[in-house]
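Running this now, will post back.
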Amino acid sequence: MYEWKSPAGGTAAAAAAAGSGSGSGGGSLDKRAFFDLPSLATGLVTVKDYLLASDVHQGLFFLRYSDASRVLEFMSKDFDGRDVLTCGVVIAEPKLHFLAADAAGTLQMMEFYGKRDTNPEFWAGQRLAPMGLLHVARRVGVAASVQLASRDGRNRHALLCGSAEGGLSFVAPVPDPQAAARLAALQAHMSATLPHVAGLNPRSFRHRFIRIPKALGGGEHHRAPLPPRNNSGLLDGQLLLGFPHLSRQQQAEAAEAVGSSPQQLLEDLRAIAAAATFG
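Update: finished.
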């Protein structure tokens, strides 16, 4: 990590313009800190003093920069060993959610709990906690942060993802936790009970690849799907947006199964569409 220092008496913008010419009279880059990733860095996202880095073979690394000691402190990482092509941060104030897009076309969302989580699976916060996984069958290579319009004043950022095949995906936070729980239950019901095109169940497809083919080593690796408690944080919008197109009887049956009403579920979907508006 470097810090840009402008020349005395000049602004940073003017120094950059001067330095881009002959190289004389410009500012300088001073070394501040470094962190050695295992293989190859494929992505880097900063949020204030925090950094999220992705490695081509070793998943995500969550770091914090300390200006006083000039070091990048290791906070947590993904120990599942995936070939990550890019990474991104979904902001839902006051929480940060980390997205990893791997070479097999799978998106996985994770969260940093820190020492406040007593679950031994997360090693006192050193392991990023999985939130959800979605197979999109596209190699997502870029994830751009987009600020969302907010009615309650809270800071929210979504991710607009582009794939090597030319497709676009949009990952946005759900503002209401209760609505998220209802939609997760609705997603499970629709996946399990409704007939699907050509008999292809979305759950089997979306969770098809858990680990990914080693891009440089060859051979595919698979793992058991995430348990339900660790796989409800990433909703399948393509499936859920089919709810308004169901018959009234099917909507009523689905709403009864999840302990809600069709009107409430439709309102939840409308709220998500409104919240996903660019700021």
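Residues 177-193 form the longest helix (17 residues). More later if anyone needs it.
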